[in-house]
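Fig. S4 source data, part A: sequence.
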Amino acid sequence: MDAADLKVFEAVARLGGMSRAAAELHTVQSNVTARIRALEARLGTPLFQRHSRGVALTAAGRRLLPYALRVQRLLEEARRAAVDDGRPRGALAIGSLETTAALRLSPALTAYAAACPEVDLTLTTGTTSELIAAVLESRLEGAFVCGPVRHPELEAEPVFREELVLLTDARARSIDDVLAQAGLRIVVLHAGCSYRQRLEDILARRGVVGARLLEFGTLEAIVACVAAGLGVTLLPRSVIEAVWRERGAAVHALPPAEAMVETQFVRRRDAFVSSALAAFLQHARPAARADGAG
């Protein structure tokens, strides 16, 4: 079993078929089939179950897959480390919460693009759970997520601090008015929204459980729908500072223990820190110090 065998195995597992894997690997199906059969023979166990639509992993295949992915990641990191001469360049894939990207990252990104023109930066937004999964799977070199993050495979660095506030329509004069609403609904970006669980916990501590969920695609849509009385949401004060009054919404402060939250930058502990990533963090950290984090 060698790295080439594992690469073919991973492609078949991910794509669910020999022919699809062959197309991605720029070879013919018979070569892929022969590789897989030889690998299964060496291991003494089948890795795939064949069916009319392609293949599916056996229990042995599922156990092997994480190692195949790890080998590919290590080989790619070895290649990048070998060619990294200290000058920031090449691809850099970073993730961020949408609120952080919209509010905090613009100055750092502008300065970074000017200072490191040879870096091809990709910024992907998502929820904390989505971004952490992408970092763990090495699809992202790092990501700005809602803390605290405690994971044995991740290094987490505080970067920004945010004050979370409860946003309601203008009729709610206090949090007590919110709690008294019948059929209370929570408005979030989508079901994995980083602040959803926090809002549910805040409401649960005040005796409100089982609030219904509404999902919208943008922050603008959330603020507009909350102002229209469709529900309540939890967002950083700085995100909505400029728009809540003009939209006819109301902001309610929370106790510091519930309101203050850290945005952390997470990356794999065992991953190679490229020159492109190191330079990016050098630009993000001054913004964090100016914000009062760290």
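Fig. S4 source data, part B ends here. The chain has three domains: 3-82, 90-161+261-291, 162-259.
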